[in-house]
Amino acid sequence: MIKTFDAEILANEQVAEKIFRMTVDAPELAEISHAGQFVQVKISDAFTLRRPLGIASTANGHVKIFYRVVGHGTEILSTRRTGERLDILGALGNGFTPRNGKILLVGGGMGLAPLLCAAENFSADVLMGGRNVGEVKFWYTEFRPNVEEIFITTDDGSIGKYGFVTDALPEILSRKNYSAILTCGPEIMMRNVTKIATEKNLPCEVSFEKRMACGLGACLSCSIDTVDGRKKVCKDGPVFDARKVFGGDGA
Fold first, then answer.
1. What is the mean pLDDT of the chain?
2. What is the mean pLDDT of each run of 10 residues along the chain (251 residues)?
């Protein structure tokens, strides 16, 4: 069900350099949302297009979203205050497939946002990656109540294992039995995660982050190639079977 919601902003806080966490009071939206879905947020009347943002939490009737300030639109969003109203369209897209057993969440940067919602709904561990300690410290705090184990990699080695999530992934998979991998982040990361998952014969789903003009599948701006032909990330995704997108070897 897709609806427009007039939600009250409960908090809009900076949690890292240029990264903000916004929480809105939207119990109906929280009720109909599934892990992996997203919303389209209206910035202001000055912007024709909404901004797509992944749903990071639906706990207690509050919808939490994370965003990075990268342009004029998100800069304006960062100035919105507690008590103001936010126009939200959602819930959009298809979410992650519910599964039994322990799931491993693998995310990099802002790709951790939809995985946080998955952690709330599934039994999971998380492998998170970032450029430095500042990029993962707040994510650690967010994930801690909802996962059993947290594994960390950083590009500069300032916390956790030095390197990328794919450097740590084979060892983690050799130590524990997981029923599936869910991943979101840079495309090259997801491609390499898919390759490792295929080698281990593990189901893997990827969540794509694309520029979406309409969010409803009408404009075709977010189309990608899959083994089943062209698909729209906003309508057919953002979650896809990894092998449908990258092939069995991640290529």
1. 90
2. 91 95 97 95 86 94 96 94 95 92 95 96 96 92 96 93 95 95 95 95 90 58 72 82 77 48
| 169-222: pLDDT as tens digits | 999 999 999 999 999 999 999 999 999 999 999 999 999 876 655 555 566 566
> What are 171's two structure tokens?
């060892």
Residue 163 and residue 10: Cα distance in Å, rounded? 36
CA 74, distance to chain mean position in Å, is 17
For residue 112, what are the domain limits?
103-246
pTM tops 0.85, yes or no = yes
Sheet strand arrangement including 180-184: 161-162, 150-154, 124-130, 103-108, 180-184, 204-207, 239-241
The conformational region for residue 114 under phi > 0 = left, psi -120 to 50 = alpha, else beta, is: alpha
Q: Which residues does residue 64 pair with via DSSP β-bridges, in sequence order?
A: 23, 57
Contact 106, 119 (CB under 8 A): no
Residues forming a β-bridge with 183: 106, 206
**Residue closest to 240 by CA, chosen among 215, 220, 223:** 223
Tell me the pairing of strands 180-184 and 204-207: parallel
**Of 66, 92, 118, which residue constitutes the final position of a domain?**
92
Domain containing 192 — which CATH number? 3.40.50.80
Distance (Å, rounded) from C-alpha 204 to C-alpha 181?
Answer: 5
* Amino acid identity at 48: T
Of 92, 121, 156, which closes a domain? Answer: 92
CA 189 – CA 83 distance, rounded (Å): 38
